[in-house]
User: Fold these one by one.
Assistant:
Number 1:
Amino acid sequence: MGIYDQTYQRSLDDPEGFWADAAQGIDWIKPWDRVLDDASPPMYRWFPGGQLNTCYNALDRHVAAGRGDDTALIYDSPVTETIERFSFRALTEAVAKLAGAMASRGVGKGDRVIIYMPMVPEAAIAMLACARIGAVHSVVFGGFAAHELATRIDDAKPVMILSASCGIEPGRLVAYKPLLDGAIEQASHSVPRTLILQRPQLHADLIAGRDEDWAAAVDAAEPAACVPVLATDPLYILYTSGTTGVPKGIVRDNGGHAVALNWTMRHFYGVAPGEVFWAASDVGWVVGHSYIVYAPLLFGCATVLFEGKPVGTPDAGVYWRVIDQHKVAALFTAPTAFRAIKKEDPDGVLLGDHDISSLRTLFLAGERSDPDTIRWAEEKLHVPVIDHWWQTETGWAICGNPIGMELFPVKPGSATKAVPGWDIRALDPEAQEVAPGDVGALVAKLPLPPGTFPTLWNAEDRYRQAYLTDFPGYYKTGDAGFVDEDGYVHVMTRVDDVINVAGHRLSTGAMEEVLAAHQDVAECAVIGVADDLKGQLPLGFVVLKAGVDRPHGDIAREVVQMVRDQIGPVAAFKTALVVDRLPKTRSGKILRGTMRKIADGEEVSVPATIDDPQILDEIRAAVAS
Ligand code: COA
Ligand code: AMP
């Protein structure tokens, strides 16, 4: 048996022993009473009774171990032409000061704090400062609009919001403060305090009595110490798209999270403390939480926080420049970023300007890695390219090629094998396992390993209903795919209304809710159509109310603007088509799958249940126009 097989088998046969060993990689204030509390299935808790502090484990302990001068965080911002390095000592001090400023304003253990920030070091500092004092952070991605932020404010009920004057997108400044003010205005929960980081590019007006200047608050603060929290206390809430417009608040606890993430760095990613790890994502996404902030720091790596894009900041060579300049050992990004680079520089000419010999591995996730992109990256970079599959819910990889243990042959289109801790099956609707190679619902046998999600914030019923009910004893991932005869897992598609646009997870259901609110729209459907660059793009169809005779172009433009205003530019919703009718089954269900096939130019067999087959021709004509 190889090292992977041994490790994997042990993780399933003796999960408590396996994860207790992994937990030795974390400093505990008080040991756990039990490794796994399995008294109330399907609800499980890891390390109950244990006490620790995640921020201590990410920062202070490395200083205490004599690594205070080593680099912890490299801020590389081509959009502001800034490079700034923080040692573990400097980062600890910065975090302790912000934590002190928050604590002196009444923020304490269990309080929620929303972080709505661009990719600046203060975003990571804010997350760690919350962890330091036991507050629960909820980071909201900067590309979401005020309405989405308001929804999260109402669900998380924060005592404070940490934000900045602006984000910087290529060619434009994104003023955050008007969005923040709008969200606070829209929300029913009242937010008593904010700290606003004034960036030199844009000054935000502060509202007296509520908004304070971040820098002044930090300057005047006393550093705060790490507060012991329970392993089972929440570290953060991260909202993600579900099938409706109401996002799901994924809860991550402190203990299992620290244990699992720390374990992945050596055993999955194959890096060593002191090396440079770069997750080119955003702190607003789970990849940013896990692999820009927590995992590299817990493990004692230096992490790169990059404020830029794979192309256009200034060009498609910026990734190679960052790898060269900071001696990056592992790069983790979304396939869409590589498609963007490949489109601009198909021959990889810009690679010639840089020495990327420090790079040992490229990791891709966030969407299915298409074989072309994998092959291009392998050819150009001459390093293993590892597709790994995971979700906001899981917090770390479910499947992947575990280079830290063993490198298996790559089968493009497959995320390779289940990571230790994960028992993955493909099931039919009756919850029976399908034959190898047959497509089914991808599920994970319970209990999920540590570091996943014990519940949804304020919504345990929804947690049980959405994930644990359809296949009793299993977690339903929401993805469909198959496990082949070699145990490789192939993730093919979502089974719900979630689409993946440039590695960003979005809900077509949420977009439909926006479209349906337009005064002239009687009904609508939004589908995800294939796109060479972004993987998928949303496409809207609207049927107008009887008697509406306004120009269709005007209505299409209005609904596009509504999605931008209410969900945000990140939805990349740019096209809406006005049609007379939508194809439906006789029972009235909209045939979104059939519409998607038509839009993608695939062969469509007329569904037996369709009400009126002629409508398919009308859809074809609308798409062609
Ligand atoms: N704040 C404000 N607006 C933002 C934003 C942010 N943090 N992030 C994106 N946006 C805006 C963009 O400016 C763009 O607006 P536009 O419609 O006015 O042009 C829109 O949201 C869509 O953004 P994006 O999806 O980034 O598309 P793009 O065309 O600007 O760039 C890629 C395309 C492929 C280069 C880019 O999507 C990318 O780098 N993707 C990697 C994704 C990733 O890291 N995923 C994380 C999972 S690992
Ligand atoms: P998110 O929660 O934003 O991380 O999105 C999770 C979803 O992205 C998954 O449920 C999949 O649909 C998709 N996804 C992520 N990684 C992969 C991958 N490596 N292969 C296929 N799909 C992926």
Number 2:
Amino acid sequence: MTLRRHFPLLNRPGPRIAYLDSGATAQTPDIVLDAVRKFETHSRANVKRGVHRLAEAATEAYAKAREQVAAYLSVSADEIVFTSGCTGAINLAAHSFGTLLKPGDEIAVSELEHHSNIVPWHMLATRSGVKVNFLPIDGEGRVVVQTLSPRTKLVALAHVSNVTGAVLDVAAIVAEAKRVGARVLLDGAQRTPHGPVDIPALGVDFYAFSGHKTFAPHGVGVLWAKAELLDAMPPFLGGGEMIASVTTQGFTPAKAPAKFEAGTPPISGAIGLGAACAWLATLDWAAIAAHELRLTGRLLDGLRAVDGVTVIGPQGLQCRAPVVSFDLADAHPHDICQIMDRHGVALRGGHHCAQPLHAKFDLAGTTRASLALYCEDADIDLFFAGLAEAKRVLT
Ligand code: PLP
């Protein structure tokens, strides 16, 4: 059982593409393309501003998308802020929540974070005198939950690592954060493509993710935050549609989520993301998770059998997402990816925007295979055929 048939790019004529780069951008199913096309051809207009029928239809479609995304996360639609992506969402939190912090307050991230969840906090530290602490990772590339400093005000961590595939022990982090009165932000960029997220059950305060990794268009993402936080946080960007009123003396912001959506939002992207979430919510995730993990197991077992390969990340399947990064006898990841491309295998090579993680493992980069619900055994077969050639040529 796979869902490959729903993805036109993967079914185009010609040799098979073994698309193992879903962690960078996932492919888009017909149902999302249809929703975007329907909007663009039936109700394209700006949202909120107009009273003509197209503007009303666009506003309705945009509001529906917010509901669909909220349902995927089991939260209220008023708490969903559409952004430009996961990076945009974390920057919004850093700027806006950051203004509520004082010099000497501390933020905890980890050594495995994507740069999107490090640099905005470094920038905040430069602006405001807060301190950024790094939780260590263990030899399998998992965050080690440590005693937090009592000055910690926020813990910002990846729900799933984009390099090691490790799934965070959210319960342990939330318990420790609660003990010191800190908020928790999860970067869900690598988690939302693998099924609905029950945010209330996680007990976190912020959740960020990107549309394009969740089978939707580029240029859209989401920041979810508890209503009380969105109320307390000042706006980040100023402009149209984020105000209740403006005078020559100043302005009064609108209520959330409008307060955080200055200017024309990514309307068709949000509609695509809503359609993606609605579709994903109908799928059998027990079966998909088992399928993705079985393929991940094939990758791990096969890689273990190749001389010179080191997998950076958990060696087993427990608390693991289908993301597998490896080193092949110090061969350059770009060379590996190029050879694999000749076999129709799309991989990613480099530091994956996680330089502190790679520094920890004393590597400049790794080669990464990241799977999604449309991957099949034939993709893994192609991967190992390509890898055999890469090994022969490069080592
Ligand atoms: N966080 C993680 C864990 C990621 O994997 C990525 C992208 O690879 C991002 C954040 C940034 O996402 P975007 O570039 O879509 O904003």
